[in-house]
């Protein structure tokens, strides 16, 4: 069956790997993001890799006016409509401490912007009685920590939103997969100290696609992060508040 | 962050470098780097020695610059960024009837790396080197993008193909692929009892892909024995893919003579005396060792050296003496390969010449280094050549004497990179630009 995917934040390393996996199975892919030159190149790349069709579309999480034109385009496609959200921004916590107004942008990029977009898309998915939404959160959303609690809070909000959306979409035969990656070897994490067990974006993409096919609800990738986070979540707060991990 | 300070090495892991590495993912980021802080580029670092290293300096990792820029299913012309691997091209386009015309023994090699070393494959005697199928390439050189091809900026093209990255950073290339009827190979394997049978069989073979494994531990009457593999592209049912395996820790089995001899005996006997024909998947035929991740850990933490030479047709007696010496040393790992090579080469510093090429892995030990030095002398005496993709031990004078177009290359490189921004550890060790 024909499937159309909208990839929000398509220039990211993980999104690129995931779009390529979709292309190789013949999907139609809309690459949404800000760097149009890169996205246009990526669209050609996906076509050569086997996508039924690939197109670059302008999307800015902080500019809601960019949302409707994308939704109008995909609703003209036949078959299922699907979306994968890879957007987010993570300023250094120290930068946020110096300039608290950075919180607005972080929350918009990582939660409010994509949530609003999905909210606009969902009625069309319900009308078609199917389709999958992949929402990429972060293990940082599982517990507020000294190092990045604003980003973590935004991702936690997004995760809760996705849980509610799953509850809603299930009724019409659709599905929502929440993805919580650990450390991934991307342009964003390149050269950052203290990274360990770093995963390749292509492996993360494979995990996500598998979760889509099996209709998994929440996945950690690589899988062992489920256990790492289980431990981190189970530390009592009166102890946790004194730790810096 | 743009730069990451890290220790890295080539495939042989005997030589390492420490320095800042950038790994851009988008054209914009790469352009900025090349304009503001030009540095030599590397791909998956499948060259064995120090060709991809820049100790104490900076380097650009091109593996994330890996977009396919165009593909024409009618003509089989593909344009790809430098970081696209040859295994990727094969996986994407073989089902549509096209494969790269030339691939080396690892599919992890990138388009940029394959050009920079003008690599060859099992079909070199028939279809030439990788660079001969490059229709054009885009180079970032001396502050700007320049297109070159066999007809346009010809000298720059010939200095870039096989030019170990010294003319600038290869951004992308247009390649002519070849037709394949399917995604499988028909492989015929034959036992060869000794050196004479090896040479006779290789020179008599009419197969498009022909290569011999050689038991580099066998002595006396068995010296030079091995198995010949002759193959053709066919359309057949693909067997199930083999599972990937990984060498989890350093496990120096291949540097152990006893293990190597036992392994070789078993490996020789895997082909029945009457020979055997089988159907293999393309990737398992072309890249048999890629299924074993961290294969190089079989040499232990000290790493290894690969000796690869090519000698002209009339150097075959010298090659036999070299093989005998290798066998008597007992130092060779099971990875040893002999093949006939054709005249095909596309650059001034390209390795191939018509004759025979021998490649043998040795553990990184004093005795082996001494042996390799003697083998280099013998190669020179035979009028042969050493391969820069493999070398980590040679001296500059030796290499320069083997490459007749070296001076012309230096002239072109000086024009393309006047500030020496592309200089690598290999170029410093071999004093290739002075």
Could you describe the 3D structure shown?
The complex is a heterodimer of chains A (245) and B (434). With 245 residues, chain A is α/β, with parallel strands linked by helices. Chain A has a single domain, classed as Rossmann fold. Chain A is built from 9 helices and 7 strands; from the N terminus they run βαβαβαβααβαβαβαα. In chain A, strands 3-2-1-4-5-6-7 form a 7-stranded parallel beta sheet, sandwiched between helices. In chain A, strand 6, helix 7 and strand 7 form a beta-alpha-beta unit. Chain A is globular. Chain A starts with a strand and ends in a 5-residue tail after the last helix. Chain B has an 8-stranded antiparallel beta sheet. In chain B, strands 5, 6, 7, 8, 9 and 10 form a 6-stranded antiparallel beta sheet that branches. Chain B has a 4-stranded mixed beta sheet with strand order 1-2-4-3, with no helix packed on it. Chain B has a domain of 210 residues: 3-Layer(aba) Sandwich (Vanillyl-alcohol Oxidase, Chain A, domain 3), CATH 3.40.462. Chain B is α+β, with helices and mostly antiparallel strands. The interface between A and B is medium-sized, with 18 and 20 residues.
Q: What can be said about this structure in brief?
A:
Chain A is α/β, with parallel strands linked by helices and 245 residues long. Chain A has helices spanning 13-24, 36-48, 67-75, 93-98, 102-128, 149-170, 201-213, 225-234, 237-240; strands at 3-8, 28-33, 53-58, 80-85, 132-136, 175-181, 218-221.
Largest sheet of chain B: 8 strands, antiparallel
Q: In whole angstroms, how far apart are the ends of chain B?
A: 35 Å
Helix content of chain B: 25-40%
What's the CATH superfamily of the domain at 184-393 in chain B, by name? FAD-linked oxidases, C-terminal domain
Fold blueprint:
The complex is a heterodimer of chains A (245) and B (434).
Chain A: E1 3-8, H1 13-24, E2 28-33, H2 36-48, E3 53-58, H3 67-75, E4 80-85, H4 93-98, H5 102-128, E5 132-136, H6 149-170, E6 175-181, H7 201-213, E7 218-221, H8 225-234, H9 237-240
Parallel strand pairs in A: 1-2, 1-4, 2-3, 4-5, 5-6, 6-7
Chain B: E1 3-9, E2 16-22, H1 27-36, E3 41-42, E4 58-61, E5 68-72, E6 77-81, H2 86-93, E7 98-100, H3 111-116, H4 124-127, E8 134-141, E9 144-148, H5 154-160, E10 169-179, E11 184-192, H6 195-204, E12 209-214, E13 226-234, E14 245-246, H7 257-269, E15 276-281, H8 282-286, E16 292-293, E17 304-312, H9 316-329, E18 336-341, E19 355-363, H10 366-381, E20 385-386, H11 396-402, H12 406-416, H13 425-430
Parallel strand pairs in B: 2-4, 3-4, 14-16
Antiparallel strand pairs in B: 1-2, 5-6, 6-10, 7-10, 8-9, 8-10, 11-13, 11-15, 12-13, 12-18, 17-19, 17-20, 18-19
Helix pairs in contact in B: 5-12, 9-10
